[in-house]
């Protein structure tokens, strides 16, 4: 009796202590959680720094294959511009130039947000340098192949249908293109692409898969009275009643010699956790006199995909509009009938006044420069996807009077997004230029009597000379053609080609003087 109050007080004090202990534990847990949150980023940052230093060290030793994964992990742990720059440089050295190009673009955007103009400019310069040599792969899906449910993948990654037919940057090396669709045989193709190459892989129409298309014949319904009372399936018996369970392996499944077959879908197939056929249903075997099933349809012949619409040996045609400047340094020529003029020179007998004609007299002109507009064209054959040989023509009207109509053999080579070409040109060139005078030739046998001069000015009455005249000459020369691919649009159809912006500095030697042209053109080259 005496111990009871004490025990009661002791129990009460313990009960009072429990909430205080819980509050203390909660506070300690909160402090520990806060410390974990504070320490975790620090640990991740320290680990990222160590990986960054290790990756840079491996890069200096030339071990880029080991360096790049460490830099990737460092950037994942702590995404910073300095790490992204090192990672892009590593991928560039590794030859993954499309990956590096994309990372330089991301780096430029990050540097812009940070206000680091120097890093932004450096990233843009590095990316622009790589862009010229980026390989590009086009996945062409013709209309006949674009069936419902078609999935096209590149190196295992699905390619959105909106990107079919578009040239996309890709790392040099070997890649795998595959396609699959319900009820069709899968297809795949490996393609190897080099720096600056443009390739197209055409996905063919997938052949039908006979094994997937074949469906089991629907089972006939048995009379309701034929349903057995037990779950075991005997010869000629139906499937088990509901609640009895389907016959499992070794538990009453019909043996082959009994002739029982599985029920067709919808005619008594067992649902999850249920028996086989429903009440009154039976999985009937095929009748002995049933006609044989029709053979599966013949498989469609799989068309050849081809490697690219730019086949070697195919014709190449380019046409476009051109315009630019035409500069003529034709200092002599004729402006029409010169017989109305005469000139004089010394002979042993005295002074001779000789009439002019186109043989002995010529007009002199000032240099002239003027704009012209016209067109240009190229027709040839593709010796390879990157080398075209043919002929080029350039022509146009010079504003203010004159024309340009030249052409000749031409060769073009593709280097990344640029086409570089050389053309040999010949043809007539004419310009309206200011007439400065007329000169007549002195026969060589009397040059010594005329102070060593081989020609002399024609005596022209004041105002008799035209202010300007059209001077023309036959010129020979060539041009260097530089074309930038604005849009590369390869396809399996006749429209396959590229939109080009070209400049063609041209220099030509005329029979009298020189001709310079600086045309620019916008054209489409059909492959």
Uncertain segments? 1-18, 34-39, 219-310
Shape: elongated
The helix fraction, in percent, is 10-25%
Mean pLDDT across every amino acid position: 76
Counted by DSSP, the helix tally is 6
Q: Give the terminus-to-terminus CA distance.
A: 111 Å
Question: Secondary-structure element sequence?
Answer: HHHHHEEEEEEEHEEEEEEEEEEEEEE
Range of strand content: 35-45%
Tell me the total number of β-strands. 21
Largest sheet properties = 12 strands, antiparallel
Spatial extent as radius of gyration: 44 Å
The structural class is alpha+beta
What does this structure look like?
With 527 residues, this protein is α+β, with helices and mostly antiparallel strands. It has helices spanning 3-60, 64-77, 81-94, 97-114, 117-131, 210-213, and strands at 136-140, 151-154, 157-158, 167-169, 173-180, 187-193, 198-202, 315-329, 332-333, 342-347, 350-355, 361-365, 368-384, 387-398, 402-415, 418-441, 455-457, 468-489, 497-503, 506-510, 514-526. Helix 2 packs antiparallel against helix 3 (81-94). The model is unreliable at 1-18, 34-39 and 219-310 (pLDDT under 50).
């Amino acid at each position: 009796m005496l111990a009871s109050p004490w025990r009661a007080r002791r129990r009460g004090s313990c009960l009072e202590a429990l909430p205080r202990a819980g509050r203390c534990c909660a506070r300690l847990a909160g402090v520990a959680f806060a410390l974990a949150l504070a320490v975790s980023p620090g640990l991740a940052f320290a680990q990222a720094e160590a990986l960054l230093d290790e990756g840079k060290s491996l890069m200096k030793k030339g071990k880029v294959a080991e360096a790049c994964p460490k830099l990737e992990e460092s950037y994942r742990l702590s995404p910073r511009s300095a790490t992204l720059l090192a990672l892009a440089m590593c991928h560039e050295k590794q030859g993954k130039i499309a990956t590096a190009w994309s990372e330089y673009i991301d780096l430029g955007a990050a540097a812009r947000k940070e206000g680091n103009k120097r890093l932004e400019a450096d990233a843009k310069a590095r990316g622009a340098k790589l862009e010229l040599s980026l390989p590009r792969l086009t996945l062409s899906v013709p209309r006949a192949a674009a069936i419902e449910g078609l999935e096209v993948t590149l190196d295992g990654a699905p390619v959105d249908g909106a990107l079919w037919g578009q040239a996309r940057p890709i790392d040099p090396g070997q890649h795998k293109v595959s396609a699959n669709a319900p009820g069709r045989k899968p297809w795949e193709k490996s393609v190897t692409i080099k720096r600056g190459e443009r390739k197209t892989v055409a996905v063919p129409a997938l052949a039908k898969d006979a094994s997937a298309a074949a469906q089991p014949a629907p089972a006939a319904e048995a009379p309701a009275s034929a349903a057995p009372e037990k779950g075991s399936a005997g010869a000629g018996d139906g499937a088990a009643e509901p609640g009895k369970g389907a016959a499992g392996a070794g538990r009453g499944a019909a043996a082959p010699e009994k002739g029982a077959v599985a029920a067709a879908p919808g005619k008594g197939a067992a649902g999850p956790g249920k028996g086989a056929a429903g009440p009154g249903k039976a999985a009937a075997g095929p009748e002995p006199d049933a006609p044989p099933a029709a053979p599966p349809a013949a498989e469609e012949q799989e068309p050849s995909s081809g490697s690219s619409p730019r086949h070697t040996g195919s014709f190449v045609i380019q046409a476009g509009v051109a315009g630019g400047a035409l500069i003529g340094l034709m200092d002599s020529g004729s402006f029409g009938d010169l017989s109305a003029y005469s000139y004089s020179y010394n002979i042993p007998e005295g002074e001779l006044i000789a009439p002019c004609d186109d043989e002995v007299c010529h007009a002199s002109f000032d240099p002239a420069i003027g704009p012209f507009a016209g067109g240009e064209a190229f027709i040839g054959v593709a010796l390879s996807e990157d080398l075209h040989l043919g002929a080029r023509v350039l022509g146009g009207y010079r504003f203010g009077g004159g024309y340009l109509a030249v052409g000749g053999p031409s060769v073009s080579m593709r280097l990344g997004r640029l086409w570089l070409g050389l053309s040999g040109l010949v043809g007539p060139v004419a310009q309206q230029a200011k007439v400065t005078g007329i000169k007549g030739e002195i026969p060589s046998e009397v040059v010594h009597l005329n102070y060593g001069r081989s020609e002399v000015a024609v005596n022209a009455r004041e105002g008799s000379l035209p202010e300007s005249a059209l001077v023309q000459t036959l010129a020979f020369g060539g041009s260097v053609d530089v074309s930038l691919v604005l849009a590369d649009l390869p396809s399996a159809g006749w429209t396959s080609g590229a939109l080009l912006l070209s400049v063609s500095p041209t220099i030509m030697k005329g029979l009298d003087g020189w001709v310079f042209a600086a045309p620019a053109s916008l054209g489409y080259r059909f492959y």
